[in-house]
Amino acid sequence: MRLAALLSATALVIATPVLAQAPDRVAINGIIDQGFNHSEVMNTAAWLTDRIGGRLTNSPQMREAESWTAQQFRDWGLSNVRAEGFEFGRGWSIVRSSARMTAPRSIDLRAIPVAWTPSTDGVISGDVVVAPMTTPADFDKWRGKLAGKIVMITKPDTGSEPTEPAFRRWTDDELAGRTAFVQPAHAEPSLGGLREASFAERLDAFLKEEGAIAWVKMSQRDGGLLHGTGYTYRVGTTPTLPGMELAAEDYRRLARLAKTDASPRLELMSEVRFHDEDVNAYNILADIPGTARGGEYVMAGAHLDSWVASDGAVDNAAGVAVVMEAARILKEMGVRPKRTIRFALWNGEEQGLLGSLAYVDQHLATRAPLNDPELDSLPNGRTWRQRWPVQPRPGHADLVAYFNIDNGSGKIRGINAEGNVAAAPIFEEWLAPFASMGASTVSLRTSGGTDHVYMQSVGIPGYQFIQDPLDYGSRLHHTSIDSYDHIKPEDLRQAAVVLAGLLLTAANSDEPLPRMPLPTQPTPSDPFAY
Amino acid sequence: MRLAALLSATALVIATPVLAQAPDRVAINGIIDQGFNHSEVMNTAAWLTDRIGGRLTNSPQMREAESWTAQQFRDWGLSNVRAEGFEFGRGWSIVRSSARMTAPRSIDLRAIPVAWTPSTDGVISGDVVVAPMTTPADFDKWRGKLAGKIVMITKPDTGSEPTEPAFRRWTDDELAGRTAFVQPAHAEPSLGGLREASFAERLDAFLKEEGAIAWVKMSQRDGGLLHGTGYTYRVGTTPTLPGMELAAEDYRRLARLAKTDASPRLELMSEVRFHDEDVNAYNILADIPGTARGGEYVMAGAHLDSWVASDGAVDNAAGVAVVMEAARILKEMGVRPKRTIRFALWNGEEQGLLGSLAYVDQHLATRAPLNDPELDSLPNGRTWRQRWPVQPRPGHADLVAYFNIDNGSGKIRGINAEGNVAAAPIFEEWLAPFASMGASTVSLRTSGGTDHVYMQSVGIPGYQFIQDPLDYGSRLHHTSIDSYDHIKPEDLRQAAVVLAGLLLTAANSDEPLPRMPLPTQPTPSDPFAY
């Protein structure tokens, strides 16, 4: 504690390499030359997006992406390129789809099949009924009213008023505000509800039983954007009724007309395929072997899978291209790091960080079973945070730092130290060569929602970069316009340079990054709550 | 001059009714009650958008809108409800359409047929060639390279970075900035090029001659938005080759792939109909008759026609609904104005303000012929501004004020006095009752692009309101999301109240609004230019 406080006190003290080795700035000059003057990052991004397209876990497109990225790593000379499998579920892909309103007038609508729902039987049509349902308690209200209908399951809201710019970069003030420690929210994971089927499965069963012919939901964004996200991918749980997402404008028009005497009718066509040849999904791993520190390694990762409303460009071909470009740069330079540098392209991230979780479970740490046969048979991710204690595996100590990229194509502005006050001053030192590129902020905030989370959950120093937000959250995340156009080349080049530099520094530092204590079951936030 | 300057000097002087009669605030209380507590404006807007949909000039949907609005006026008790025709051209409507990329992979694309292009012969497919052409001089570059191809005629740019909020309202500072006089830009209309066919016609002929099978252009906005605008509507000039607009993201993807070895292929299907039963388009007019001022009248107008990528909601069902609601409010109140109050729903606005031009030409003033048989045979709008002198018709003096609404669904923040320094202080007085609703700015700016322009061009006091911009220009104008969702109910109710109040005040004022001098041919901006 004292030493960490000392380290963070002044830049003068930080410059003295106590725990960490200062970055090799000559090597970083080489990285900058390779990353800015000889970049391949946009070619990589273009292949993943334009050529392969959206990469839903276990879809043919994702299989192609697995092969292509592995081959790229091999072509660039990386070592030990491999695919590590974990059980996922069914593959699914869209062949084509369409939707039309046919009464009171005929127009083409914007629609996408919801992931893992089945095909329609050719073109189907029916009257619509607006029957918003969000919990099983809503079923009673609609029982007996849905036979032969296309059921509109979302309650329509009104249009948005986007009063903030869609595209932005962090200001200095905003970045400065991130350096304050944020006390972790004390959310207590609960086992409640885990024994039940998901609402999506129960809704499917209810609609089937009622004789509905299909369902549609409303896009959660307006502006004509679509997503098509769905989560019923496990073998034996994929739905029986076709479901489609409609553009908010199209959905609301139908809903309004359904409140009049217009009797709107909807025509749907969804042709999709399931792929059951292999229920495993695969993470792609590749190494630059270390020369001096035994099994120790540093790792960078990004998820390769995406949703399929568009080409999964900023979520997350951008991150994959940056990780692969860092590998290419370092390999091209012929670096011989003390520790192994590993590059990981995760699978199944969009369905719950499943690829990185599988890696954690297989290589780093597992967690005790609940000793409840029903709950212990659930997929790992469902109960992970509720199982104590964390049980480190032999490889737990070997992974000395993990860096994740999954926040769009914005350039790197710094790193989230995830509340680790011992690591923060070291990051400040490591990022110093990149300050003039805008990548100097060390935030003490935690960040969630992507593949460093499960590493953090077992005490591995896994970190997520701070990236300029651009229009990632406002209009691209999971949407029908997440294509190559919206990737910013200058930003990606910068990110690859910073990542390559950080990896090399971490691989060669005398000491590994300081760790947080191994997590144990937290006390409840309010011990006297009922 | 002196009197006008005096009027604008102080509010005290303005309050003395010299040229104008102060607004009848008791009547305005009645308008407020009717417009806010008993509004029908959103029902009107919903019928025009949800029920009828996009209303391309001379399409069946526009015919339905002509009938429905006329019947509404009749149902509300307006007088002299009539349709005034003018020669336009062919009607056109979309039945259905689709586009797919089929190589190097298969995906559905977002596309819309370009207005007045013909159907494809079922589903057609071909290799693409990126051949940007903007002038006939570009044809040589592509001659001999287009046979059997689908030609991509737009030069692709890169994605946008929307750093301004899409949705906004005028700030006080912005409104204050509008009160300064703006010297008119001295653009000299030219007769050059009028003898030639339009570029669209020449491009169609070139592509046909080269054996291309279709053409596609890129949407001018990204974000997946489409427009489908096209202007070759005259009998005898509609194109022979199908043309479609692709979403910018889809177009750019094809263009990038065409730069690689991927050989992208495109599949297009466009089923459209032409409607030649009646080449006339019709303005819908309705009156509340005056009681005391002979043929004098005041008029409010909005264009009823729209593009068809969506339902023509903020452009301009919103304006139509406001004009119709003002009519309903005043009729419901049983007003008996001194001057007739006329309500006009224009046609053919999107193709060049053609409906309001026809009204001007038929009722207000015409312009001398050029005495060139070829040029004089062109449609009125092509040569209107180049023909001198303006020749007033007997009705010229009768129209004492025209108010236009065509800037989306934002509430009224004031009015553009169009450089008329004599009218400005009168507007300040007339708008005073609406200051607390935010509608108090009298701008001296001119405004263009809609149906008051041709009235201004012959010296009629035609004015356009200042409306809050909202997201009209940023994402709704002519796009595939211009549907009812994005109309703001509170704004429309306010606009109808302000318009009804202003119409009543103008109809009852002692003196008509001051006019500008009858326009005569301007001197050139630089008399010595070569």
UniProtKB/TrEMBL annotation, chains A, B:
One of its GO terms (cellular component) is extracellular region. It comes from the Bacteria. The keyword Transcription does not apply. Its main location: endoplasmic reticulum. SUPFAM superfamilies: Zn-dependent exopeptidases (SSF53187). GO terms for biological process: proteolysis. InterPro entries: CPQ (IPR039866), Peptidase_M28 (IPR007484). GO terms for molecular function: carboxypeptidase activity; metal ion binding; metallodipeptidase activity. Homodimer. The monomeric form is inactive while the homodimer is active. Transmembrane segments: none annotated. Keywords: Carboxypeptidase, Endoplasmic reticulum, Glycoprotein, Golgi apparatus, Hydrolase, Lysosome, Metal-binding, Metalloprotease, Protease, Secreted, Signal, Zinc, Zymogen. It is found in: Endoplasmic reticulum; Golgi apparatus; Lysosome; Secreted. This is Carboxypeptidase Q. It holds the Pfam family Peptidase_M28. Residues 1-20 form the signal peptide. Residues 514-530 have a biased composition (Pro residues). The keyword Glycoprotein applies. Residues 511-530 are annotated as: Disordered. Residues 283-500 form the Peptidase M28 domain.
